[in-house]
Predict the structure.
Amino acid sequence: MNLSLALRLGRISNLPTVWTNVLVGALLAGGGLADARLPLLMVAMSLFYVGGMFLNDAFDRGFDAVHRPERPIPSGQVSAGQVFGFGFGMLALGLAGVAVASRGPDGLPAWRALASGAALAAAIVYYNADHKGNALSPLIMGLCRVFVVLTAAYSLAPALPAAVVLAAVALLCHLIGLTYIAKQEHLDRLGALWPLGFLAVPVLYGLWLGLSVPLVWLPLALYVGVLAFAMGRLRRRARGDVPRAVVTLIAGMSVLDAVVLAGAGLWLPAVLAVVAFGLTLALQRWVAGT
């Protein structure tokens, strides 16, 4: 398997959104940007993400043979066995990274972080194995990102602050709306629109944060703009509009993270999250985000 193919299978263009999820979990749990555990957690969560993307192609090989025959497995560029092996291997390495990053003064990894990491791996596998035709798959996909936040938080703290829980709920709602759209991307159209109502929850949370921290309005305005752009594409529904809405909402996770970080008074991390949004959009022009 060559590097170009691996990058495509791993949808690496979306990795900056994983890194900002880690920032939210770790920093709201009391960590700092200078904490040596932070880059290790980002690497570990990146392995979970890329491994999950590999498994997505491996499990979806039959579906892709009909609807997306240009994907690496149905087009014969790589075997399903190889992709399965790399996918599960990266999940194992990701969990090992969590164990190292969460070690306490006694040298033992935090059991809550390990349990959350194991739940993340299980959610990734279950989603990929059973998301076609599963009405709950948007919730399961959302939980995958929630466990990224929770695992990062538990790696630095023994308990979850309320801010982490609220941020995770907002992220979950964003992912439910996003995944509902992505499930129908191959059709390039949408059915019922009511699941998109979940996208209103992060906006309402941002408005609540803005009442206490007025500067939250800046990243919140950008987040609302991202949603408006995506909704405009869904309303128009010209060819290519649904995929464009999907990748925009994927990148928009980092803007939501910026809102949450700004709400906690973490201005530099909030700026970094906005930069990650721009980086994701730029990388999506190089490697497809879906």
